[in-house]
Amino acid sequence: MNTHHETILDVLGMSCQSCVRHIHAALGELDGVTEVEVRLSEGEVLVRHDQDRATVNHLIAALREAGYESSLAAAA
C-alpha cells in the first residue's frame, strides 16, 4: 500500500544555493521520494514521499550522510 505523506524537516547548516542543491540531490535519490522543496530562508525542507519506502528515519539519515543535521519540524 502506498502511503504518500508530506514531511517537513528542520535542517541545520544550510546557508547557500549549493546547500540547496546538495540537499535536493541527497533526498531526491531516495526510493519513494516524489518531491523535494528546500526552503533555504526557513531552514527547512518539505519532502513528499511514500512512508513505506522512504521513512522519516531514511530522510534524516540521507541528510546526515550529506553533512546536515535535521529533525522533524515542530508542529505550527
Helix-strand blueprint:
Elements: E1 4-12, H1 17-28, E2 33-39, E3 44-50, H2 56-65, E4 69-72
Antiparallel strand pairs: 1-3, 1-4, 2-3
Question: Keywords for this structure?
Answer:
about 80 residues; Alpha-Beta Plaits; about 30% helix; alpha+beta; 4-stranded antiparallel β-sheet; globular
Notes on the structure:
- The chain has 76 residues and is of the alpha+beta class.
- The chain has one domain: Alpha-Beta Plaits, CATH 3.30.70.100.
- Helices cover 29% and strands 36% of the residues.
- It has 2 helices and 4 strands; from the N terminus they run βαββαβ.
- It has a 4-stranded antiparallel sheet with strand order 2-3-1-4, with helices on one face.
- The longest helix is centred in the first third of the chain and has 12 residues, at 17-28.
- The protein is globular and about 35 Å long.
- The chain starts with a strand and ends with a strand.
- The mean pLDDT is 93.
CATH structural class: Alpha Beta
Q: What string, H for helix and E for strand, traces the elements in order?
A: EHEEHE
CATH domain fold name: Alpha-Beta Plaits
Strand order of the largest sheet: 2-3-1-4
Total domain units: 1
Strand content: 35-45%
Structural class: alpha+beta
Compact description:
It contains 2 helices and 4 strands, in the order βαββαβ. With 76 residues, it is α+β, with helices and mostly antiparallel strands.
